[in-house]
Sequence to fold (278 residues):
Amino acid sequence: ELCRSFLREVRCCILEPVWVSVVLPAYQAADFLETAVRSVLEQSHSAFELLIIDDASQDHTEKLARYFAGQDARVRYHRMPVHGGVAASRNLGVRLARFDWIAFLDSDDRWRPDKLARQIAYVRAHAVDMVYTGYDFMDAAGRKIPAAFPVPGAVTYRQLLRQNVISCSGIMLRKRWCQQVPMRTGALHEDFWAWLTMLQQGAEAGGIDLPLHTVRVGRPSAKSGNKLHAAGCTWRTYRTLGLPFMEAAYYMICYFCRSLKKYGNLFLAARCREEERG
Fold:
């Protein structure tokens, strides 16, 4: 086993580095952007570029982004002329990307330092088009919530319809799939629609069941923060995919059941943390 481990390390050193284009859409993100950007710059895997796509923010997002671009040559800043939404920002980032692998990060989330390194090791060992990770949670103030979301080692189109286990901040995928299936704008879950469409068209997905990124919850302005709105977006995602009414209704029932379990556990974990602090 020690010999195999040594050979794997030697092989990784000999292999050409895998370069990743990290796309970070930012809209009115001044309160959280520094945390997100630093979590990228502190990655143990340093072969990346970071594209900050400013969706015509009116706060200090531009000032912060330009600061980081001036401090690190790997950071590139682009400002959209008008507000177009997160899907348009991500699509622009993909068009500007220089490398064959894309990773997304939402401006209010953060990565663990070994996130990219573990994903790159995974794609070197497995013939997949996308690799996603588990994640844990923090509240709106950035305080850790003692709960984590596990993910399966693989997922198919039908399995993903039951529950979206692929967090946008945790995925790394081949750029050609982003180009083939750009995210759709509108009142739907643009990333969920894209992953489902990619799987439907033959993409292979694998998962790393470790909390390699942290999702911020409890922000009222976030799409996921309004559960009724999020449910409506899920329904429109199913219908935009072309699912018949009854089939879409079945998967909505699955969505509600799994969401109740996920957010119920999250609520209990947050409450226990508050009681311990109190």
Q: What stands out?
A: The longest helix spans residues 245-277. The beta strands are 20-26, 48-54, 75-79, 101-104, 110-111, 130-138, 144-149, 172-174, 205-216.
